[in-house]
Amino acid sequence: MTNGNINALTEFQAIATQALAALDTGGQITPFSARLSSFNLDDAYRVTAVIRQMRETRGEMPVGRKIGFTNRKIWAEYNVYGPIWGYITIARYTTSSRSAKPFRSRVSLTNHSCILSGFRG
């Protein structure tokens, strides 16, 4: 994808919207790298930044990062050659918003494996 391009920014936002919907529902979607031949790890991190912003807008807070692919022995199997990280967020819902229980917490993870499934470097 072209960096700094308005079309790329719109594309990142569209991908983030679809990925967040899949994360929220537990649904499966076709890997973005299968649909967009130039979609790469840098693009996935840009999408992750958009998803973080969307989550913060709806009241979730980043509380840490999940680091994956730390085992070098599996890198070649997945065509990944370094650790990959994603934000861990927590949301607090009140009875007037999304939950029947006051201040019920939900922890969510924006994991690059969901964004990059099928990614081939």
In short:
With 121 residues, the protein is α+β, with helices and mostly antiparallel strands.
Give a structural overview.
- With 121 residues, this protein is α+β, with helices and mostly antiparallel strands.
- The chain has one domain (6-116): Alpha-Beta Complex (Fumarylacetoacetate hydrolase, domain 2).
- It contains 5 helices and 3 strands.
- A 3-stranded antiparallel β-sheet has the order 1-2-3, covered by helices on one side.
- α1 packs across α3.
- It starts with 5 loop residues before the first helix and ends in a 5-residue tail after the last helix.
- Mean pLDDT is 77; it is low at 99-121.
Please tag this protein with its features:
globular; alpha+beta; 20% strand; 121 residues; Fumarylacetoacetate hydrolase, domain 2
The description of the largest β-sheet is:
3 strands, antiparallel
Arithmetic mean pLDDT: 77
Low-confidence stretches: 99-121
Sum up the overall morphology in one term.
globular
**Spatial strand sequence of the major β-sheet:** 1-2-3
User: Hey, roughly how much beta strand do the residues contain?
Assistant: 15-25%
Number of domains: 1
What's the Cα radius of gyration? 15 Å
Q: What pattern of helices and strands is seen along the backbone?
A: HHHEHEEH
**DSSP helix count?**
5
CATH fold title: Fumarylacetoacetate hydrolase, domain 2
What is the level 1 CATH name? Alpha Beta
Total strand segments? 3
List the helices and strands and how they pair.
Layout: H1 6-25, H2 32-35, H3 41-57, E1 61-68, H4 75-78, E2 84-93, E3 104-109, H5 112-116
Antiparallel strand pairs: 1-2, 2-3
Helix pairs in contact: 1-3
